[in-house]
Amino acid sequence: MHIRTSFRCIVAFGALLLVACAPAPIYKTAPGTLAVLPAQVAQAPEHYGKAAVIWGGSVVGVRNFQDHSEIEILAYPLDGSQRPQPNTHGAGRFIAIVPGYLEPLSYPNGALITVSGQLDGSRASAVDQAAYVYPLVSVAQSHVWTPAEMRQGHPDIHFGVGVGVGIR
């Protein structure tokens, strides 16, 4: 009985440590913020109006226009810290619209990004040869994640059996 109680305390303490290490979300989720994925919005954009969203994913490309820039993003579900989860299935594509000029080198292809903003309709276009409907998001805030930020809160603990040789 004493061993079970000790084991439960150790497990609870370990879980508490892991939760305490996870960074907080970067954007405050306002009441009415949609919890849907871009692929769902693309199927019926008229049903979602001008709702607030917090979406993220991997940068596909940046296009600059005279008065705004557009970031095409392959969406991924977000974790509790609003970091994109690139090891999951893509959740559709969307276009983030940002006022002014964006330096494309600051948003390289493959960079992970989270945006907070408001839906602003959709645009029919294509991905390669396939027809596609992109939800449009007028961006209020955006954050490009660094590799260190993506690792933060993920314990570097590995379990296994075997023999290994490391050379440095």
TrEMBL record:
InterPro entries: OMP_Slp. The keyword Disulfide bond does not apply. Residues 1-24 form the signal peptide. Pfam families: Slp. Keywords: Lipoprotein, Signal. This is Slp family lipoprotein.
